[in-house]
Design goal:
Two copies of one chain form a homodimer.
Chain A lengths: L4 H19 L8 H11 L6 H12 L4 H22 L9 E2 L2 E2 L1 H5 L1 H20 L5 H15 L4 H11 L7 H26 L4 H28 L2 H4 L5 H4 L5 H24 L7 H12 L3
Antiparallel strand pairs in A: 1-2
Chain lengths: ~290, ~290
Amino acid sequence: MEAPAQVQADLDRLMPLLDTGLTAPFRQGDAVRLGEAMRYSLEAGGKRVRPVLCLLACEAVGGTPAEALPGALALEYVHTYSLIHDDLPAMDDDDLRRGRPTNHKVFGEGHAILAGDALLTEAFGVLAGAALDPVKRAEALALLAEGAGWRGMAGGQALDLEGEKLATYDLDHLRLIHRLKTGALLRASVEIGAVLGGAAPEARSALRAYGEAIGLAFQIQDDILDATATEAELGKRAGKDAGRGKITYPSLLGLDGARQALEEATETALCHLASLPNRNSLAAWARYLALRAK
Amino acid sequence: MEAPAQVQADLDRLMPLLDTGLTAPFRQGDAVRLGEAMRYSLEAGGKRVRPVLCLLACEAVGGTPAEALPGALALEYVHTYSLIHDDLPAMDDDDLRRGRPTNHKVFGEGHAILAGDALLTEAFGVLAGAALDPVKRAEALALLAEGAGWRGMAGGQALDLEGEKLATYDLDHLRLIHRLKTGALLRASVEIGAVLGGAAPEARSALRAYGEAIGLAFQIQDDILDATATEAELGKRAGKDAGRGKITYPSLLGLDGARQALEEATETALCHLASLPNRNSLAAWARYLALRAK
């Protein structure tokens, strides 16, 4: 589907800010080939969901996009590193990502590992070096580490790898994996935006809960798309979860059950926005992410 | 050789502080196996050079070890992640590290990649979450990212990988690689300690220059050891540089030339300490690192 008007307006407004900042730091340096590998994956496009949510959360509490920009860039670096490493032969072993060969197919495995490592490092570097209030900056850095680390995304990816060897597991375990693997960084995206925008404690909690709910919705929709869309539509291999007998929301709940769970998670996300004055964009994004086609 | 008295006294004093802090955070969590993989490499021992230098630099400018401890832990996490990733089949392809099977040999490649990723993330997390002055904390985080990232250690490792495919390269290129690959994090170790100890600008510059010089000395001695020591002495594969025709200080300068370069770098390091009142420990470490047997 095409993005709805509100989402498209936000993208038109915010994407130039992101695109300028994302790759500029990696053009001049000694490690030329590594810089190319980092830029290759940053320039592959993608929806920029995490940085956009970060900027919108900052605006939702009265901040400006410029205040949250270092956080937004950091989140896209972390997300991009995770895609590069997830695609490696020792992990999901994918050749195609966003319609192009994966990083290790172009630059080799060694450089792909290092490009991921360097992007993860620069994520913290761009935040640490930003001209922000030191307390906000430290809080954002701690949230980023929490969302990306062994209690968040990296831990979820490890459980997901281990899950492929389990004969079966239940809905609670599936939820745990996704809360860590996908949910933790999405939640951090929203909460970092809130912190950098100077959110009051209640608004910050509400946005954290919103982030948690859209993280769940995002993953359910990912599973539904993997089961129903084609490779050409996704720009990556389709049906790969079913192909390796992986447990997903559709495999546990059926397609209709998964769609209902998706709707409930989206409703939950919308409810948590109720107390915020500037909630239109975040509400539109919650609905859009649940209906996206890739 | 045994550590000299001053070095041994510092180790006896500082190691308990480090050993308690290093693995404690990774015992309780959902990603049990990933936590085990992280602890396996953290517990493998090693000289803890980077965290010890960080604590000593803090003391050299009048701070206490406790003030620099989060920085010291962060540095050991970064160093440990780099060893895990460097040992992977796509990088140096090593089976043995500190006398034990490498991380990927025990936990598999996927978990080894993730254990490295998670340790790198936690390095920033432990600093970001520490109860330190926010300005010092942000400076330490920026220095850590600079030392570890694509302009530092990760960039140097990429150049080193690329160098294996070059027919030959000169001393300047070798120096560049090692300044990034080994030197940047050692320099950061000392400078982070200085910052967390509240160093005045001149003392911070002097310690940064000391760190740069011992980084060079460290790498020259590494090359000399690779060419002259046995696997049993090193606890890792010996002669691997020569075995793959890699350019090293001994191969460019001869063993005597390399030993002279090592002595010069150590002298440079010692000179930069001249203006510091509490310089005895750092001076002893510079001499010790140049004479170490593994």
